[in-house]
Amino acid sequence: MRTMILICGVVLMALAGCNSTPAETTTTEGSPLEQLRNDIKEVAARDERKADTIEVQHLLVAHKDAGIGGVTRTKEAAEQLTAELYAKIKDGADFDDLVKKHTDDAHPGIYGMTMVGGGDQGKNIYARKGMVAAFGDVGWRLDVNEVGVAPFDARTSPYGWHIIKRTK
């Protein structure tokens, strides 16, 4: 009987140890996920750049609850993939090439946004207020050729994570 109690105790302790946070949501100092989250905060804290119109290219990393057809990844997996792609971009990877291979939107994902008037959809320029809020919030805080990320937020970025490069 003592042996059985001892075995049960060991099994219970082992099971309790297995109830840890999944690796995909764990952050370690200096990890791509931690760097992504830090950079998102840094860009969000900036003042917006002065410009009536900007152009951005984006890479959308959606998750299965975002309403994008065919996407099966979880929110956690989408954030992790965003962190990995963002790290590659920061290390010099070709942005357009990553958009071609990984976006859950259509390539090339280039949009103009304007603060003046209603835009010109024939020229692919949209009123800022007509776009996902986080898209413009990040785009106007970036310098030309700089990359930032609009994180998933059900209200301001409901389709997932947008890795955004300001092109003009």
Descriptive notes:
The protein has 168 residues and is of the alpha+beta class. The chain has one domain (32-166): Chitinase A, domain 3. Helices cover 36% and strands 17% of the residues. The protein has 5 helices and 6 strands, in the order ααβααβββαββ. It has helices at residues 2-17, 32-44, 75-90, 95-102, 133-139, and strands at residues 53-61, 110-114, 119-120, 125-127, 147-150, 161-166. A 6-stranded mixed β-sheet has the order 3-4-2-1-6-5, sandwiched between helices. A hairpin with a 4-residue loop joins strand 3 and strand 4. Helix 2 packs across helix 3 (75-90). It is globular, with a radius of gyration of 21 Å. Residues 1-26 have low confidence and may be disordered.
List keywords for this structure.
17% strand, Chitinase A, domain 3, disordered N terminus, alpha+beta, 6-stranded mixed sheet, 168 residues
Low-confidence stretches: 1-26
How many beta-strand elements? 6
User: Helical segment tally?
Assistant: 5
How far do the termini sit from each other? 75 Å
The domain count comes to 1
Strand order of the largest sheet: 3-4-2-1-6-5
| Range of helix content | 25-40%
Determine and state the CATH class. Alpha Beta
What letter string, H or E per element, gives the SSE order?
A: HHEHHEEEHEE
Q: What is the general shape? A: globular
Biggest beta-sheet profile: 6 strands, mixed
The gyration radius over C-alpha positions equals 21 Å
Structural class: alpha+beta
CATH topology: Chitinase A, domain 3
Mean pLDDT: 85
The percent range for strand residues is 15-25%
The CATH architecture is Roll
